[in-house]
Amino acid sequence: MARTLYELAGNDPALRFSPYCWRIRFALAHKDLAVDTLPWYFTDKQAIEFSGQGRVPVLIDGERVVHESFEIATYLEEEYSDHPPLFPSGSTAEARFINAWTDSIIHPYLSRMVVSDIIKILRPEDQHYFRQSRETLFGRKLEDVTANRDETVLEFRRALQPVRIVLKAQEWLGGEQPSYADYILGGSLMWARCVSRFEILEDSDIVAVWFAKLRGLYDDMGETAPRA
Ligand SMILES: N[C@@H](CCC(=O)N[C@@H](CS)C(=O)NCC(=O)O)C(=O)O
């Protein structure tokens, strides 16, 4: 069955950097589901109009069109219940919390560290849209948003303390095996890694060790992904 994933891309179409798309890339690999990934660009709304909205990831799975990363993960879990589970507890409840925590607490830190690097990797025709929409959102110039990133990174590392506590007790956020919870946070760290060379984690941090292990999954999928 044909399966296609629309993913946010940079000027180099191979550079895929959306945290939400990375979550789904890992989820599909976890389920051992082959997929064709198509580059999508911020100003290319028309290309995903068929999904009834303007954001990626968008997954086409045979006849089905699904958007919203958490909805896609839930869909994959139900549709491919005989494949390895993304939600090993049998419930999406805990992962929903990790999703909300990552998006609402971790993403603002990541934005404050890398958003001014994103514009440098975009196609020229997407740069204006990105600057205008994000500067409206932040109420400041992109360069001002990241101006204090040497301080922000310290706050960010402190905010990861709950993850450290969990990883001291178990190998993955999912327990003995990686699960969608790992792909949520890992996908967001892939975003920062793909768009910027700013070091957000210290090598000795258990979170960095976990993230490196996550990147090594599925034939080094995250490790070998193109970066800025
Ligand atoms: N809650 C959505 C968020 C999706 C989202 O915001 N995707 C971004 C890319 S990282 C996007 O498509 N943005 C389009 C735009 O800003 O115009 C999800 O989890 O899938």
Can you give me a brief rundown of this structure?
The chain is an alpha+beta fold and 228 residues long.
Write up what this structure looks like.
Helix 1 packs parallel to helix 2, helix 1 crosses helix 8 and helix 3 runs antiparallel to helix 6. The chain is 53% helix and 8% strand. The protein has two domains: 77 residues, Glutaredoxin, CATH 3.40.30.10; 128 residues, Glutathione S-transferase Yfyf (Class Pi), Chain A, domain 2 (Up-down Bundle), CATH 1.20.1050.10. The chain has a four-stranded mixed β-sheet, with helices on one face. The model has no long low-confidence stretch (mean pLDDT 98). With 228 residues, it is of the alpha+beta class. It is globular. Bound molecules: glutathione.
Q: What's the end-to-end separation, in Å?
A: 33 Å
Identify the strand order in the major beta sheet: 2-1-3-4
Total beta-strand segments: 4
CA-atom Rg in angstroms: 17 Å
Shape: globular
Question: Which class do the helix and strand fractions yield?
Answer: alpha+beta
CATH topology annotation of the largest domain:
Glutathione S-transferase Yfyf (Class Pi), Chain A, domain 2
Beta-strand proportion: 5-15%
The helicity comes to 40-55%
- Specify the CATH architecture of the largest domain: Up-down Bundle
Roughly what is the average pLDDT, rounded to an integer?
98
Tally of alpha and pi helices:
10
> So what's the CATH class of the largest domain?
Mainly Alpha
Q: Give, in order, the helices and strands.
A: EHEEEHHHHHHHHH
The tally of domains stands at: 2
| Distinct compounds present | glutathione
Q: Mind summarizing the main beta sheet?
A: 4 strands, mixed
Low-confidence runs: none
